[in-house]
Amino acid sequence: MNKIEIRNLVFHYTAGEPILNDISLAFDARSTAIIGQNGAGKTTFVKLLKGLLKPVGGDVVINGINTSDATVAALARHIGLVFQNPNDQIFKNKVLDEVMFGPLNIGQSQDEARERADAALAMVGLAGRINDNPYDLSLSERKLISIASIVAMNTEIIIFDEPTIAQDFSGKEHIKAIIRDLVAQGKLVLTIIHDMDFVAETFERTLVFAQGRVLLDGSTREVFAEEEVLRQAHLEPPHVTQLAHRTGLPGTPLTVEEFVREKRAQGAMRPVTP
Amino acid sequence: MKKIVVEGLKYRYPLTAELALNDVSFEIEKGEFIGIIGRNLAGKSTLCQALMGLVPHFYKGAYGGSVTVDGLNVAQTEICELARKVGLVFQNPFTQVSGSKMTVYEELAFGLENLGVPRAEMMPRIESAMALLGIERFGKRNPFDLSGGQMQRMAIASVIAMAPDIIVLDEPTSQLDPQGSEEVFQAIQALSRQGMTVIMVEHKMEKIARYSDRVMLLDHGRLVDFDTPERVFSRDDLAQYGIAAPIFARICQGLGIRTPQTGLYPMTLDDAYDQVVNWHE
Fold first, then answer.
1. Residue A273 phi/psi, 5° resolution?
2. So where are chain A's domains?
3. Fewer CB in 10 Å around end: N or C, chain B?
């Protein structure tokens, strides 16, 4: 069964200024990146999935529940959202209390919430910091706390909004590993993101939003092969793919390793000129 | 002409044990575009604050060595004086917005009002900064009704309107889409070519390699290297400092390609293209 089904979704904040225009989509288990220009409607879209906004037209169905008929609280056991800015999300003065807050609110017992919080903090590498004040930690560590807080709620669907902002190389690698871990646990992971290199290395499926519509939808490799369409949407392919297109290397490589392998294979096939 | 001279700078925040900056020395010429790279907590943001005086005047703490900006010793000059020379674009635009202005246009006027710029001069400066960052159509919007990316453009425009000699930017394009980010880099490069000195902290290594004249690599508060992008990103010990070279350099490294004239890895799409397209194993 698809975890999310969207049928003819229409949304606007002000009548006559459409934000989302007749979107129909289904999300299966594949990890999915949502990319698009600033103002393309990506954040509005995930707020509709969370039930924070209700459709003006059409339906959003999460695990069989139509968001128009459900409260945000009821949906919170099925779908979690990690905020872009951890400072907007974190409000407790102890890391453990912060991470247990969501689980307790959706009805987990004290014991279960503690167990899930411990597991989530271990996953993000902050198990040793449970008694610290989140604001004594760095911004990148607070980002990890905000992720652990949602992971501990054990929802089937987890959405990230710009997970790589303010992360250095190792921070990005860490978040990549967390996403893969969640996918391996069978969770549906959706991410709004502007970092195309990270998308190429991490997500199976990619959606391109432009002017309130889905312009492209396919495997990440298929989507990044469409250089022209991406440019129209004010995007660009990952750096690896850009160099591959320019040099005529086939197969839309997405990572440095794939590029090097393809190029070596191409070199090996070339007839030796006398 | 030396625009910035830093000699033996050491700094420790109050109530901390470790030096955030440890014996940092360098010189920057007028009109240079400098990229600052390093892992989180390397000291990048602290160095930005030290150039415009928030370190030590606002944060206090222990301070040694000297920072000289356009002939002014930063530790002995008040921030209001330094603000005429150096503009800082904050990492988080929410932190920078004054909160006391109801429109984007007035938000851009805020810095100019504080500098005492006459009204007639303010308007063309605000309008040209808004045009440079492509936010003319948001002039009447409330700053807090902007999206993250639009707010980031406004934060940069607010500082550019003040026409500083030196602009310090702390990850200025983190919330922008790829083309928006490219537009902002081009706008800042144009200012640099007009003589503004640019200092930018950035994790997007491909952009740093393409736009910076020189790259400063910091780690644990120390200056590890300060050289051309080609030389810094061709170091074989970057991983030790938590840095990955630009993708194009990593591809060339994987294929064993170096630029023949320099023996360094190509850094940019154009340079990598030239080498990769002619490559045979």
1. -80, 135
2. 1-71+188-236, 238-268
3. N
Model ipTM value = 0.88
Looking at residue A253, its pLDDT comes to 96
| Cα of B39 to nearest chain A Cα, Å | 6
Distance from CA of B118 to the nearest CA of A (A): 35
How far off is chain A from B277, nearest CA to CA, in Å?
A: 6
**CB-based contact A39 B150, cutoff 8 Å:** yes
d(C-alpha A196, C-alpha A152), whole Å: 28
Q: What is the mean pLDDT of residues A66-84?
A: 95
Cα(B274)–Cα(B269) distance, integer angstroms: 9
**How far does B203 lie from chain A, in Å, by closest CA?**
6
The CA distance from A238 to B248, in Å, is 11
- Under CATH, which architecture does the A1-71+188-236 domain have? 3-Layer(aba) Sandwich (3.40)
Chain A residue set in contact with B, beta carbons under 8 Å: 36-39, 43, 84-85, 138-140, 162, 165-171, 194, 196-197, 231, 234-236, 238-240, 242-243, 246-248, 256-257, 259-260, 263-264, 267-268, 270
B258: exposed, middle or buried (Cβ count in 10 Å: 0-12, 13-18, 19+): middle
Residue A20: the pLDDT is: 95
pLDDT tens for B23-51 read 999 999 999 999 999 998 899 999 999 99
Fold observed for domain B1-85+166-177+196-229: Rossmann fold (3.40.50)
B100 sits in which H/E element: none
The strand pairing partners of B26, in sequence order, are B6
Q: Which of A180, A173, A181, A146 is nearest to A161 (CA)?
A: A146
Domain boundaries, chain B: 1-85+166-177+196-229, 93-163
Provide the number of CB pairs (under 8 Å) joining chain A to chain B.
109
In chain B, the N- to C-terminal Cα span, in Å, equals 46
Distances, alpha carbon B13 to alpha carbons A166, B55, B69, B156, B171, in Å? 21, 9, 22, 27, 22
Whose CA is closest to A222, among A16, A30, A15?
A30
Alpha helices in chain A (DSSP H): 42-50, 72-75, 86-89, 95-105, 110-124, 139-151, 169-184, 196-202, 220-224, 227-232, 239-247, 256-269
Return the beta strands (E) in B137-181 as ranges: 166-170
Task: Give yes or no for a contact between A212 and A19, defined as CB atoms under 8 angstroms apart.
Answer: yes
